[in-house]
Specification:
The protein is mainly beta and 306 residues long. It is built from two helices and 25 strands. The chain has helices at residues 208-214, 282-285, and strands spanning 15-21, 24-30, 33-38, 43-47, 53-58, 64-69, 75-79, 84-88, 94-99, 108-113, 119-123, 137-142, 148-155, 158-163, 168-173, 178-184, 190-198, 219-225, 230-234, 239-243, 249-254, 258-265, 271-277, 291-297, 302-303. A hairpin with a 4-residue loop joins strand 19 (230-234) and strand 20. The chain is globular.
């Protein structure tokens, strides 16, 4: 890993946007509001500038995760447990957009939606427990009409994803100690798989515990800035780091608790939102309400998608 010249001086005070949540993931800035999924309250919510919370969708008995929008404004939501992509129609009805249960390796995970409505969705690859061996996972492409294809099958817990203006998909491999890139073809297919940034050597695969003990960074949710750098929520180290292609870490924002996803947004595009919680344990978070969405101004502005 190339450390680069890390800058922590850019950090402004950290504000709480919303609190008393179960576990927040996949923040998005859309239509002047910040949107986020609360897995264990089964809700997608949005928050306005006045702090008012709107429940945008509910998935009873399922866990919403990745969010994105079709060109006509309909919302897509990853339903983790059932292995489906749900769609919120203009009248608010929630319908199935794509049933990926036949190709999902474990739970579905985060998602990014391209400008034309093509979605890229990751999956766990295994049951996420401390003593579970690491197994490869599928990355799935979902066309705007709901048809789907497995584009890669060898990723280690594909998680947050961004699409650059040049048409590169960058994927955080949470159990791989790296960010992986693909070229997006005119038909949406992926090609040219390569390492975009490595944080260290390959991790052991005998268990989640062993992998996390050896990892320098656990890249979870990510977002892109207008200069092409990726901001990475480091699930191990209570921070969001700014990473350039090749692995240089050029900025770090430290938080008082664990952070698991991030997004640049706000009226000027320079607000860094972070999904925060004491840890990511499902057993601990499912029945608690101590997660929050935090925000701080940084010296970068939003770029790409989401």
């Amino acid at each position: 890993m190339t450390a680069g010249n890390q800058d922590t001086a850019l950090q402004s005070p950290i504000d709480t946007v919303v609190s008393d949540r179960a576990f927040l993931e996949c923040p998005r800035w859309h239509d002047g509001r910040v949107w986020v999924s609360d897995l264990y309250r089964h809700e997608v919510i949005s928050i306005g500038a006045d702090g008012a919370v709107t429940v945008e969708a509910t998935l009873p008995g399922d866990e919403p995760s990745g969010l994105g929008w079709l060109p006509d404004g309909r919302l897509l939501i990853t339903a983790m447990e059932s292995g489906r992509i749900m769609r919120r129609e203009h009248d608010g009805e929630i319908v199935v957009h794509a049933d990926l249960s036949s190709v999902a390796t474990g739970k579905l995970n985060d998602m990014v939606v391209a400008e034309d409505g093509t979605a890229y969705v990751g999956s766990f690859g295994f049951e996420f427990k401390r003593d579970t061996p690491i197994a490869p996972a599928n990355l799935i492409r979902v066309a705007p009409d709901g048809s789907f294809t497995v584009e890669a099958s060898d990723l280690r817990f594909p998680n947050g994803m961004v699409i650059t203006p040049a048409g590169t998909l960058v994927v955080a491999e949470s159990m791989g100690n790296k960010l992986t890139a693909f070229d997006i073809g005119a038909d949406g297919r992926l090609d040219g798989q390569r390492t975009w940034a490595a944080f260290g050597p390959d991790l052991p695969t005998e268990s989640v515990k062993a992998a996390m003990s050896a990892a320098a960074v656990a890249p979870d949710g990510i977002c892109l800035d207008s200069d092409g750098a990726v901001w990475v929520a480091d699930a191990l180290n209570r921070r969001v780091i700014r990473v350039e292609e090749g692995g240089a870490i050029t900025a770090e924002v430290v938080f008082p608790t664990g952070v698991f996803a991030c997004m640049l947004g706000g009226p000027e595009g320079d607000t860094l939102y972070a999904c925060a919680a004491p840890n990511s344990s499902e057993a601990a978070r499912r029945h608690t309400r101590d997660a929050s969405l935090l925000a701080t101004r940084v010296g970068a502005t939003h770029g790409g998608r989401p």
